[in-house]
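Figure 3 (text version): structure tokens given as input.
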């Protein structure tokens, strides 16, 4: 699922002096310009960006994101291309030639074959590969779903099952393994199927809410109005209602689909991204992005709306760049020019979860959160710490910020009750991380950052008390008890998660709150945080924290001990803080 952005006026997004942003794009993009390209396609199953020409297809890996990655290529035959995807094991290439035919290439033998619709009265809307044990590939047609397996002996597709439905259009993400099929006059009636390595789950039919216009016209939903996102391992569908100017949020359970509130939108055109389980709602016309952490029950934004900015390098026509041009010829190829730095340009396409593609310039960017800026946007210290403790992609930075905030609130002699609530967050987070194994799995003894935080390695582990089934890829289909529904209800959460991104549902934080009229203590210590984060690249790569949790030893070494050296006068305040810590 992707969302296109449009803008009526150019707006440069290169960060300059005094620019504020909570979300940024690193200046170095992945360039995908191939002579003779016949379009670009995103294969979310294999995380590949594909650029077919008349006789071959070039592909770039997008995970891990590397702007300097070189493309690989495969041969293709001449013909129209509606869609193209590699199989999940990368052994086959499937190309939709028309609404009646999909052609297949065996990359090993070079053999090809085609699969056509049996009836001309039906059309192929699209297809996707799956790791479901019942089938290898799914055709989405106007008449429903066709599930196929690949027959090695006959080198052809074998029809396994057909699900008959009237389908107007569909949306699918490989991350969720969920396909939503739209039907009805307004395309607001949906049937869903989740096809994963655990099997097929048929979701109940449901309708999405749509406000009526003043003229009593019935609006029609389009595929661009629906986003499927996975946040904290939970699957949601977000629906744009332009009449009501709301973004409706639907949570999927096995037996029911529940609307769980709505978010206000301030632009008829919106797009959605997810970065480190933070929901980003791009207000395209307003050229700002609003952040939500929907782990908490509160639907209040994390901070005030701010623009999305480029970060990290000057423009290609800047004097500093021209002065060093001769020494940087090789790197200048990837520098952003003025026309490429237009934020929310007409050609922008948002790729779930966290990529942006410029169709005109053939450039791909990855979206990042600025944890320092977010931390400095709120004066609610416990809420800021809760937010930072949930971050996984930049656990090292989140940990450093938490340590800095903890030191600062003590040095500023905040009320003991306030500091105690902040300590409560850190202690609770460490307790949870210890129980699930995240903290100990990531810790590597003998290495410390310049700021004193130990280096860590290893992958993240997660635990969940709910029933689960683990597939062959190490991923899990889970059915958690339904929050907000009677505990005796048979309804279960429909989730699909990677083990390194799932949060334990039994561990709950307080609601996030913001105070836009105040500055947080984190802002007073930005220089301290930045200096502590300025470690060399090799050290950062070696230190891959899986959790920002802070142990009692670290609290003493990097909070209480430095604070004791800096505080002068009556020590009773610090003693009271330490006593509160020991009570936890």
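Below: residues designed for each position.
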């Amino acid at each position: 699922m992707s969302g296109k952005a449009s803008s009526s006026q150019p707006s440069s997004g290169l960060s300059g002096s005094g620019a504020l942003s909570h979300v940024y794009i690193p200046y170095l993009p992945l360039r995908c310009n191939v002579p003779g390209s016949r379009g670009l396609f995103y294969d979310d199953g294999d995380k590949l960006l594909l650029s077919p020409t008349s006789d071959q297809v070039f592909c770039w890996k997008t995970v891990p994101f590397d702007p300097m990655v070189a493309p690989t290529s495969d041969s293709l035959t001449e013909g129209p291309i509606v869609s193209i995807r590699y199989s999940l094991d990368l052994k086959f290439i499937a190309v939709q030639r028309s609404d009646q035919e999909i052609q297949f290439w065996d990359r090993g033998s070079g053999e090809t074959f085609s699969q056509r619709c049996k009836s001309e009265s039906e059309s192929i809307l699209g297809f996707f590969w799956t790791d479901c044990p019942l089938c290898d590939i799914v055709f989405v047609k106007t008449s429903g779903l066709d599930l196929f397996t690949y027959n090695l002996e006959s080198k052809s597709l074998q029809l396994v099952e057909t699900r008959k439905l009237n389908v107007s259009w569909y949306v699918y993400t490989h991350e969720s393994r969920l396909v939503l099929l739209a039907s009805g006059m307004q395309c607001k009636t949906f049937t869903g199927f989740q096809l994963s390595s655990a099997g097929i789950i048929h979701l109940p039919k449901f309708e999405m809410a749509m406000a009526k216009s003043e003229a009593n016209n019935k609006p029609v939903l389009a595929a661009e109005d629906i986003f499927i996102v996975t946040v904290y391992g939970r699957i949601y569908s977000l629906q744009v209602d332009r009449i009501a100017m709301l973004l409706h949020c639907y949570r999927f359970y096995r037996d029911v689909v529940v609307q769980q509130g709505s978010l206000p939108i301030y632009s008829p055109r919106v797009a959605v991204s997810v970065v480190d389980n933070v929901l980003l709602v791009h207000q395209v016309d307003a050229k700002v992005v609003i952040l939500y952490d929907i782990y908490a029950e509160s639907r209040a934004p994390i901070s005030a709306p701010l623009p999305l900015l480029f970060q990290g390098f000057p423009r290609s026509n800047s004097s500093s760049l021209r002065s060093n041009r001769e020494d940087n010829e090789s790197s200048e190829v990837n520098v952003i020019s003025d026309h490429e730095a237009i934020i929310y340009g007409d050609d922008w396409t948002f790729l779930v979860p966290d990529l942006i593609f410029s169709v005109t310039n053939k450039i791909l960017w990855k979206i990042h959160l600025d944890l320092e800026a977010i931390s400095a946007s709120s004066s609610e210290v416990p809420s800021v710490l809760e937010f930072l403790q949930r971050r996984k992609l930049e656990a090292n930075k989140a940990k450093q910020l938490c340590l800095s905030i903890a030191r600062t609130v003590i040095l500023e002699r905040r009320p003991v009750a306030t500091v105690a609530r902040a300590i409560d967050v850190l202690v609770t987070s460490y307790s949870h991380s210890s129980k699930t194994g995240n903290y100990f799995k990531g810790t590597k003894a003998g290495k410390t950052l310049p700021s004193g935080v130990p280096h860590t390695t290893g992958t993240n582990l997660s635990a969940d008390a709910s029933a689960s089934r683990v597939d062959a890829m190490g991923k899990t289909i889970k059915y958690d008890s339904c929050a907000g529904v009677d505990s005796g209800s048979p309804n279960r959460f429909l989730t699909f998660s990677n083990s390194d991104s799932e949060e334990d549902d039994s561990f709950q934080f307080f609601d996030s709150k913001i105070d836009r009229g105040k500055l947080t203590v984190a802002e007073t210590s930005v220089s301290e945080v930045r200096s502590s984060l300025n470690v060399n690249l090799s050290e950062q790569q070696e230190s891959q924290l899986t959790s920002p949790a802070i142990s009692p030893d670290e609290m003493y070494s990097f909070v209480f001990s430095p604070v004791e050296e800096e505080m002068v006068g009556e020590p009773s305040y610090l003693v009271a803080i330490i006593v509160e810590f020991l009570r936890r």
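The CA atoms of residues 446 and 454 lie 7 Å apart.
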